[in-house]
Amino acid sequence: MKNLLLWILLFPAFLRGQENCLNVRHDEPLEANNIGALFSTNGQKFYNGKRYFKVPYLSSDSPSTIYASSPWIGGYRSGKLGIAFQTYTSDQFDFHAGPLGPHAQIVADGCSDFSKIWTVYGQEIMQHIEDYADNQIIDHPWPSIYGWPADGNNYFLQYNGFELPDDHRGGWADFMDLNGDGKYEPDQGEYPAIKIGGNYQIPEEMKWMVFNDAAPHDFSGGVPLGVELQLTAFGFHCTDNSLLNNALFNSYKIINQNDEPITDFYFGHWTDYDLGCPGDDYAGCDTIRNTEFVYNAFSFDGGPGNSLDCGNHIIGYGARIPVQSMTYLSQPMYTFNEILIPSNTPTGCYNMLRGTWPDGTPITAVGNGYNPSQSLPVTRYLYSGDPMDHSQWSQVTVHNTINIKTISSVKLDVLQAYEPGRVDLVYQFHLDTMLSFNLQVGVMRRQVDSLKMLISLGNLSCTSFPFCSRTMQCVWPGDFNRDSIVDNNDLLFWGVMKDASGPKRNGNLSWKAQLADEWVKTTTDGVNYNNGDGDGNGKINTVDLDRYLTHYDYKIPGFEKKDKYSQGDDIKIRSNHFYEDGRLTGLQVKSAHALPPLLGMMFEFEYDTLYYQLRSGTDRQYPLTTNMIIPEGSTIISSNYPIRSLDMHYGFVKTNHGSVNIPTEYVFQNFVNGFELKNGISVADLPDTIVFRIKNISAVDNNGNDLHLGAQPLIILKNQITGVAPVSMTDVNIWPNPCHDSFQVNSDELTDILIYDIHGRLVKRILSSDLNKPVDISSLISGVYVLQVQQSSRIYKLIRQ
C-alpha cells in the first residue's frame, strides 16, 4: 500500500514532465583520443544496437573492447528498497533524460530539453582564455562555453533556448570559478573544467549529460529512488603520453533529490565486455588497484584460419591482444562479480551490488564462485587472483570461457538529502606489442599505477597540438565541401577529391576545427582538398566516409542552414491524377531534358507535411550498377536497384571520376502510391495552392564544376482536386521570355492562367478572355515566376528582368 501511495504522489509530476518522451534518447560519440566511445542521455554507454567502445579508434570499423555498459543504483528510502538498472534495451529504460527538482519532482519538459549532450573542446577553452587575457573582454564568444550548464550562467537561455530550473539543488556541471562566487560567468573569463584528484583539468573533449530514475522503471520494475545522475565524460589527446591517450574518464555526480536520506546506497556498473571476438574472454579484478579487467583466453583473437573476422561484422585483435580495464578512482571497489545466474529482479540485482549472488548466496573463492550450501572461504570479489600465477584463483585456472558480463560497485552508504556524491572512474586500454597476450595483465598493473600517480600529482597535461583559430582555414572532419554542415552535398566533393593525397593531420577525429596543412589541389570553387581527408591520414578514400556518416547533419557552431530553391527547366515534377478525397497519384520527379554528364547529383523533395503524408514510400532509381555510392539515411549503399524508402533525399556520386548521362524523362523518384491527406484533414482544409518542389539541388561534373541545375515546382490548385481522370496537357507559348514589363500568352484552349512566385504565392491571374493579349507585369519584382494553366495544371517558367 505504501508503494502505491508513493506512485500516486509521483504520477502527476510524471505526466507533466515525461509524457510522450519516456523513450527519448540522444547518442553522441566521444572521440578525444585513441578511444571512440558512445554515450546516451538515458544512462546507457557504448551501445545503440552495436558495440561502440572502439580502440585503437580509426573508424567505425575499428575493433571494440566493450559491447555495452550502464550504471546501476540501489538503496533504501523510507525503509523500502529502490533500484534502477539497465542492460541491453532500446525501448524500456529505468533512467530517463533530465534533472529532478526538489522532492524528486520530474522537471516539466525535462526529457525533451535535456535529451542533449553538451560538448566543449579544449582548444575552444584555450582560445576563450586567450581572448579574455587580451583585454579582459570576450570578443568572440564560443557557444559551447557560453551555453555550458553551470550554476548561475546568465547566458544559458540565450544559447540553449530554455532555462536551467531555478529550484534545482545539488549543482550542475563543473567549471573554473575564478572569482570564487559560485556563479559561472563566462564573460569574466570563466570556463568549463573538470575536477579530478583534487585538481581542475582542461581535457581535449568533455561531454556532460543528466538523467534520473524518477519515472516508471520499465526495465526492472523496481521502485524509483528519486536520484539524479550527472555524467561528465572526458579524455586527453596525447600522442606523446600513451597513458592519457588510451584513457577515458567518467565522473558521476549523484544527487539524492528527496527530503530524506537514502541508506545502504550502492553505485555500480554492469558491463558486457567483448575484447574483439566475444566468447574467448576472461575477466578478473585487482582489489589493491580497485580495478576490473578483461583479457583473452587464447593467443589469437579471431575467426577460423587466423582470420580477424569473428563473424557478424565483428573484428578481432589477431595476435596483438590488449587488456581492457575499468578503475574506480574516488572510492574502493566494494565488489566484483559476473552475471553468471540471470536475474532481472530488483532484489537479485541489489544483492549483486552488495557483493553476493542474486539469491543471496555469498561468493566463495572456489571454481566459478557459486557454491551454495558449502562451507568455503567467502569473498566479495570474483577471480581476484593473478592470472599469471596459476596457483591463484582466476579464470585461467577455472577454464570457463564465456561471453563475459560483469557487475562491480562502490558503497556510498548514505546519500543525504540534496547533497551530491561523486564517483570517478577511468577506462584504460593496455597493449605492449612487444609482449605476448598472457603478459598484458602485468602491463595493465603498471599503467594503472602510473596513471594514478599522474592524477595525484595533478599532471594530466601533454604536448598540445596547435589549435585552429577563427582566422584560419580549418578542417571539420566530414564537411568535405566546407559549407559548415555535413550533408549529402559533401559526397559530391568527396567524389571529386577521391584518390588525392597530401600532408597528414594530428590524428584526431572529433567534430571540431582541425588545423591542417594545405594540399596542392583545390576544387574549381576554391575548396582545398585537405577538407576531403576525413580521418586525417593524408589520403582521400572510402575510409573518409566514416567521418561523413558519424558526423552527418553536424553543424559548425553558429551555423543555421537555409534551404535553397534553384528554379530552372532541368528537373520537373509531374502528377496527372487528382482525386476528390485529396489523393495525388502518379507523381514523379524526372529530367526535363538530357542533362550534362554528371559525376553526381543530390536534391531533396519537399511537400507540405501539415496536410499530406506519403502513402507507401518512394522508389528511387539510379543510372549505374558499379562505381557509385548512394546516401540512404545514415548509411551508404552501392546499388542501382529501385530503393523503396520514406526518405525524401535523392543522390548518387561516381567513385571513379567517371560520368553519368541522364536522358530526357529519366525518372529519379516515383511516388508509386502518391500522397494522401493526413488524418483529420479534409479537402476543405487545404490552402488554395498545394506546392511540391525540389530544394538544395546540387550537381557536379567529373572536373568538379557546379552544373547549376534548377527545378520546376508542381503547383496544384485546390479546385483542381475534383475528378479521377487524368487531366489533358495543352501547349502554351509565352513570349518574350525573359521579359520586362509585359509578355503575351498564346493558347488555343480557353482557360485562366495563374502566376505564382517561387514561394507558391499567387501574384496574378490572367483571365481566359485576356489570352493572346499583352499582360502587364510591371508591378512584379525581377525574378523567376511560375505560370500554371488552370485547367491542365501544366506549368511554365517566366523570367521577369
What is the secondary structure topology, with strand pairs?
Blueprint: H1 2-18, E1 27-30, E2 36-40, E3 53-54, E4 64-77, E5 80-84, E6 96-97, E7 100-101, E8 105-106, H2 110-114, E9 118-121, H3 122-135, H4 143-146, H5 156-160, E10 175-176, E11 191-192, E12 194-196, E13 199-201, E14 205-212, E15 227-235, H6 242-245, E16 247-256, E17 262-273, E18 281-286, E19 291-296, E20 309-311, E21 314-315, E22 323-328, E23 335-338, H7 346-353, E24 363-364, E25 378-379, H8 395-398, E26 405-415, E27 420-430, H9 440-457, H10 489-497, H11 545-550, E28 567-574, E29 577-578, E30 584-585, E31 587-591, E32 600-606, E33 612-614, E34 618-620, E35 628-632, E36 635-637, E37 643-645, E38 649-654, E39 667-671, E40 675-677, E41 689-700, E42 714-717, E43 733-735, E44 742-746, E45 753-756, E46 762-766, E47 774-776, E48 783-789, E49 795-800
Antiparallel strand pairs: 1-2, 2-3, 3-4, 4-5, 4-17, 6-14, 7-8, 9-14, 10-11, 12-13, 14-15, 15-16, 16-27, 17-26, 18-19, 19-22, 20-21, 22-27, 23-26, 24-25, 28-31, 29-30, 31-39, 32-38, 32-41, 33-40, 34-37, 34-39, 35-36, 35-38, 41-42, 43-44, 44-47, 45-46, 45-48, 48-49
Question: Would you write up a description of this structure?
Answer:
The structure is a single chain. This protein has 801 residues and is mostly beta strands. It is 12% helix and 31% strand. It is built from 11 helices and 49 strands. The longest helix is centred in the middle third of the chain and has 18 residues.
